[in-house]
Design goal:
264 residues, alpha/beta, Rossmann fold, seven-stranded parallel sheet, 46% helix, 14% strand, globular
Length: 264
């Protein structure tokens, strides 16, 4: 690895599996010190030990991001343990597939609480020290669901709020040296899709025609984008949405073929 992130401390929420796990391992391999925030103790320890056994600088923090006091306490501890936080990646989310008619208030509130409110609380907690140093980097993990109706209604609404929050932070605190961007993934083959895979084992194959590049994404695709946004190569990028979706939002591939009467 290039060690392009050496000297930086990165906090990653929801870092126990899937995209969060891949980002944590790859970011640590690039030389960054990594603070893992995760609710699942077993997953948390697996990622911590994987990074530590590879020689990475890592500490793990078991946390329920639904608790404001837990977020305040944990971020404070991370700052004490590492000295400072250079980058916060808000990755944790709750993904429910129900449509609005089948979405209970409990599901709706949990989606908003973990996906949006926890993002707000984590940002609010890291900002003062970043502002004091006149340097900070916040990366929010969004979704194409926030840009077009693709399903998972409560999740999509919560993520749309995350996209808006990115713009707020970038504009309001840019004068204080704070950068804030959103990574916008398309379909990424992760454990979050397990229920759908059980219902339809061919779901990723069925989705391929919608992606101009002919495949769904992998966690590595998102980790690559995160490494770029953490690095000094992105110093003049803020308030942006970095879409990593294999071309999905550029145009709906099956539709133009129908319109043109073409199979290519």
């Amino acid at each position: 690895m290039s060690q392009s992130l050496k000297g930086k401390t990165v906090v990653i929420t929801g870092s126990g599996r899937s995209i969060g796990r891949e980002m944590a391992i790859r970011i640590a391999a690039e030389g960054a010190s990594v603070a893992l925030l995760e609710i699942n103790k077993e997953n948390l320890e697996e990622v911590r030990s994987t990074i530590a056994n590879s020689g990475g600088d890592v500490q793990a923090y078991e946390i329920d991001l639904g608790s404001e006091s837990a977020i305040i306490e944990t971020i404070t501890k991370v700052e004490k343990d590492f000295g400072q936080i250079d980058c916060l990646i808000n990755n944790a989310m709750v993904h429910e597939a129900e449509d609005l008619l089948n979405t209970s208030l409990e599901i709706w509130n949990r989606s908003i609480q973990i996906t949006l409110t926890a993002t707000f609380l984590c940002i609010r907690q890291v900002l003062p020290a970043m502002i004091k140093r006149k340097n900070g980097n916040i990366i929010n993990i969004g979704t194409v669901n926030a840009k077009a109706m693709i399903g998972s209604d409560s999740y999509s609404a919560a993520k749309a709020g995350v996209h808006a929050l990115t713009r707020t932070v970038a504009v309001r605190y840019g004068v204080d040296g704070i950068r804030c961007n959103t990574i916008v993934p398309g379909t990424i083959a992760t454990a979050a899709w397990q229920e759908r895979v059980e219902r339809n084992p061919n779901v990723f194959e069925d989705l391929k025609p919608w992606y101009p590049l002919g495949r769904v994404g992998a966690p590595k695709d998102i980790a690559d984008a995160a490494i770029f946004l953490i690095s000094d190569s992105s110093q003049w990028i803020s308030g942006s949405e970095l879409v990593i979706d294999g071309g999905l939002l550029a145009g709906y591939a099956p539709m133009f073929r129908t319109v043109e009467g073409s199979d290519k």
